[in-house]
Amino acid sequence: MKISDLLKIDTVIIDLAATNKDAAIDEMTEKLHLAGRLNNFDGFKKAILQRESQSTTGIGEGIAIPHAKTDAVKIPSILFAKSKEGVAFDALDGQKVHLFFMIAASAGANNEHLETLSRLSSLLMDATLRNQLLAAQTSEEVIRIIEVQEKAQDGDEEHTVKKSADNAPLILAVTACPTGIAHTYMAADALKAKAQEKGIAIRVETNGATGIKDALTAAEIDKALAIIVAADKQVDMHRFAGKHVIKVPVAAGIRKTDELLDRALQQDAPIYHVSHEASGQVAAVVGEGKFKEYFYQPLMNGISNMLPFVVGGGLLIALSFLIGGINAEGPIAEALSLIGGGNAFALLIPVLAGFIAMGIADRPALAPGMVGGYLAASGGAGFLGGLVAGFLAGYVVIALKKLFSHLPQSFEGIKPVLLYPLFSMVMVGFVMIFVVNTPVKFIMDELTTWLNGLSGTNIVLVGMILAGMMAVDMGGPINKAAFTFGIAMIDAGQYAPQAAVMIGGMIPPLGLALATTFFKNKFTLAQRDAGKTNYIMGLSFITEGAIPFAAADPIRVIVSSVVGAAVAGGLALYFGCTLQAPHGGIFVIWAVQNPLLYVVSLVVGAMVTAVMVGMWKKPIESKIEAGD
């Protein structure tokens, strides 16, 4: 199947009207919908935005490939759109995007469709094609350019760069992105093209939507000088034990090919060591990334999988307050409270622990992790106990995998269904009941008592610290640590910390939104457009909306955000505000004690950030850059 079979006249926009990212996605989605390619407009847009939240699809060179694989797609299709003025689309090189290829893949898309879509990424590596598309004046011309390029590419399917000498150095690579449609193949093609240009022998394995292609062999791995792993999802790593391995995001495989290949030739990377035989999910690179591999990544795995329970359950609790008052009185309010607080929230600690364990030792660790988490919750050890249970279960399973690796091959089938769950649950359960729960419960009780006893300056200081932490890295580990602490305190019946946490997370986007409104001469047109979106993101408690501003001007934006957030958090707790809903922003204001004073604190903090940024930044000198 050809690309031109999926890209048709009625899915081409020759002059995109949108000037910002959200509007561009709306316009392109509407075009697909009107062309009869979608079952559900909102469903497809949601899938596109979900993919964008994982990492930008603006790949540089003025190109973006927003894409999604979802049952909201009726007919697998490609949409082309060209913007003369360009759209700020979070491109990797910071430039505006002029060429868009929106890929709509159905949930049941067959391999032929997905392979056709992946070929598109290969074509876009050609600068000549990009220039031709930029110059195209009609939809028919766009289709003709693609058809000609496809014909030129036919018969040239050999991607391996050959070297005449048998002992020539060989570089291997693995590419993988979460969706497996575009970035996986663009990174592969970029590495191959640059390797050919530099005269380097290379083999690239792709972990895409159609599965693993061009899988690396043991002989190739043994011969390889180094391996480049450009991936945003888990790949099989244990096979690379003892080799120099360069681990980078998939985007680096597109944008930093020259640097990566030079590093590989020089073996400028640590030796990879696998900590267990079975799955290779936890492996440490000697001298690099131990904290991230052993602690941060499993913790983030647990928190990210816990968040839907936090958000959904928290909003249901807040809704029950709205309907039935602070005591959730009445059948509807009681039902909502039971669903959100009695059940969704009851699963928070088991889910957190289970997915922390799974992030360490893969699927066999999920069951003992959840059991350990449930024991922590029921035993009063709370979130801290859940964290202990998750890491304990993960490393217990790693130890069991290593221990059971010496068993005969005939035992392989019963390991995951009998040996791992039986022994891991017993070991984790006994440790939690007889060792962990009692001292951790004591710590949690003391912490809760201490927080309940705080007043005056002390409670203000707590509010300032927690709120400030939310603004430091805007969704990173410090932000997540503060958020997790707030959830833990809600679980312990202490609702003040989460009031500071949420207001701190709302300040950066709101403060930047206000700054772009009142200090227009300090921001580019694209930044002012992004500022409008940040009003909604800030009110919705989506701190990440401020990240593009922080990336462009880190010192001014981060310092101003932290100061504004600290002011808001301190004021909120000084006014006696508490919050029983863990998420939802201004839309759960009815779950706040002293809501009016909470809003006052929010406004004051946002204005502090806005004024600091506005006074600190220099005016945009170029009228063109400012959009005038």
Protein model, in words:
- Strands 1, 2, 3, 4, 5 and 6 form a six-stranded mixed β-sheet that branches. Strands 9-8-7-10-11 form a five-stranded mixed β-sheet. A two-stranded antiparallel ribbon has the order 12-13.
- Helix 12 packs antiparallel against helix 13 (366-378) and helix 14 runs antiparallel to helix 15 (415-453).
- The protein has helices at residues 21-34, 41-54, 111-123, 127-135, 139-153, 183-198, 218-223, 250-255, 257-265, 290-324, 331-344, 348-361, 366-378, 382-404, 415-453, 457-472, 477-491, 496-518, 525-539, 547-552, 554-574, 595-616, 623-626, and strands at 12-13, 58-60, 63-64, 67-70, 77-87, 97-106, 170-176, 201-208, 211-213, 226-231, 245-248, 272-274, 283-285, 578-579, 592-593.
- It is α/β, with parallel strands linked by helices and 628 residues long.
- 58% of the residues lie in helices and 11% in strands.
Tell me how many strands there are.
15
Percent in strands: 5-15%
Uncertain runs are 157-166, 275-289, 622-628
Structural class estimated from helices and strands: alpha/beta
Largest sheet: 6 strands, mixed
DSSP summary: helix tally: 23
Instruction: Please estimate the helix content.
Output: 55-70%
Rg result: 26 Å
Coarse morphology: globular
Ends apart, CA distance between termini: 46 Å
Oligomerization state: single chain
User: Which whole number gives the mean pLDDT?
Assistant: 82
Can you tag this structure with a few keywords?
single chain; 628 residues; alpha/beta; six-stranded mixed sheet; five-stranded mixed sheet
